[in-house]
Amino acid sequence: MNHVVCVFSDESGVFSIKKNRFFVLGGLILDTAHDEVGLVSRIYSAMETGLRKKAQYKNLEELKATALAPQDRRSIFSRLKPFRKFGVVIDLANVNPVVFSNKKSCQRYQDYAYVTGLRKAFISMMASRQLDYEEEIAFHFITDQHHTATDGEYELREMLVQLFKEGRFNEDFSIYSKPLFKNTTKVSLVLADSKKSILVRAADIIANRLYFEANKGSLLSLEDSNMVITRLP
What we know:
This protein is an alpha/beta fold and about 230 residues long. It has one domain: Nucleotidyltransferase, domain 5, CATH 3.30.420. Helix content is about 35%, strand content about 25%. The protein has helices at about 35-50, 70-80, 105-125, 155-165, 200-215; strands at about 5-10, 20-30, 85-90, 135-145, 170, 175, 185-190, 225-230. The strands form two sheets. Strands 7-4-1-2-3-8 form a six-stranded mixed sheet, sandwiched between helices. A hairpin with a 6-residue loop joins strand 5 (about 170) and strand 6 (about 175). The termini are far apart. The model has no long low-confidence stretch (mean pLDDT about 95).
């Protein structure tokens, strides 16, 4: 069966050692074969409708995680527990200082982290037989537009295509890594405005929770939340 897998993601924190200890990427991995995109959208929409009835949220343009009370964030995250999630936690104190020398290198490291986290998550899904290497699968990646600058969109898309569809050589072309899925039919990338994408807002909740637990030193508390977490560097 030809699957369509959609990945919705967002970030939390500032990619600057001067401002934060951790920078986090996180999101949802949803399989349309089971209408997970529609299901999570309906669940999340109902939760937002409920929150809008509270006085403190009525006039907010967007219900971002940073605008929600802690108990509301926890409630939403709990409802997302049954669905597959991934996260990347970057300890900025251990990143090579050269990375912070310019915006381009910062973006490239974030893209590397994103792809590395996805690779670990999908390998885990294959190990648990949720997906198969031989399947025909189309992958759609929808990430908050703040994660990737427009001029870096092409580079990130190429990294995703190499990872999932074409395979890739190392820097001296002596070693070839096969693609994650042999019969990938499509790889697409969309930079979305979270105001218009309910599932990017859901990803925002996940990234925010990861950020909170990383700073608290309690990432292990997320072990049973159906999430594959990658720690870098």
